[in-house]
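Worked example

This section walks through a single chain of length 137. The input is the sequence exactly as stored; nothing has been trimmed or padded.
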Amino acid sequence: MKKMQLKIFPAILLLILSLSLFHCKKKDTETQFVIKVDSIRVADTVAVGTNLRIEFFGTIGPNGCYSFSHDETDFVQTTVSIKLWGKNSGAGDCPDVVVKLDGMYMDVNFNASGTYTIQIVQPDDSKLLEKVVVEDS
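Given that input, the structure is written out below as tokens.
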């Protein structure tokens, strides 16, 4: 009988450990969303082969659980389409701070002269548009 108890004890211990790990599984669910960009700052004119800096302004989220995730950038003919993605960690206890884009930027380089449209895709699929002239250097 004593030998049987010794074999059952490790099995019960393993079962308790497994259940406790399952119970402690992280309940937070990260979500992603398109960030609403209030405005951008960009030069009116840039030379071919020179970086055009696009600065973004707006609010990512109402608390510290929100942050920037990534961008989606597509070049189609003379349009540069940009969609900024944010994420919410889903944590229950978040720092009390408004998270903003505050001039976060990206650089775009053009290899041909012409008039280009910078198009920022918003959460409702509307577009914020700016024109940029790219001149031969």
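What to look for: The two ends are 91 Å apart (CA to CA).
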